[in-house]
Amino acid sequence: MANVTLSGHPTSTTGELPAPGSKLPEFELTGTDLHQFSLEDFAGKRVVLNIFPSMDTGVCAASVRKFNELAADLDNTVVICVSQDLPFAQERFCGAEGIENVTVGSAFRTSFGEDYGVVLNGEHAKGGLLNGLLARSVVVADENHEVVHAELVEEIKTEPDYDAAVAALNS
């Protein structure tokens, strides 16, 4: 379990992010076409997982836009934006925003959040408002899917450290 805040109010996650040096846990996510895709589909590619509560919030939308921009210049790398949003909402958002350089995946049918330790599980009234959604985090893995960077953003309303994620890809 890890601790984060929502507008300064404490909440927690159900586990811990995969640590640098470990292998990415296998996953399945639902794409905007309602078909499942998995980590296996990206064999030999570097992977950036941009994980967040919902595309329908300002900070989450900003992170998808920023990673979409960054992904255009990342060789042999797939950026996967993951939330509990339904695939219909993800498709609507990406279409309206012109998001073309990232893959979006919904964790609504899978154990992704539990497997990555990012399900929000707050006990405090204000900290628990997002219970069941995914905590803002970024996990970066090399082409062998070994984790080289993991960031659980301490304050949910704060954007992740994009520079650190890109630097991890270049190290």
UniProtKB/TrEMBL annotation:
Coiled-coil segments on the chain, per record: none
A UniProt-annotated Pfam family: Redoxin
Record's keyword terms, sorted: Antioxidant, Disulfide bond, Oxidoreductase, Peroxidase, Redox-active center
Keyword Disulfide bond: yes
Family annotation (SUPFAM superfamilies): Thioredoxin-like
Catalytic activity: a hydroperoxide + [thioredoxin]-dithiol = an alcohol + [thioredoxin]-disulfide + H2O
A Gene Ontology molecular function term of the record: peroxidase activity
Name of the molecule in the record: Thiol peroxidase
Gene designation per UniProt: tpx
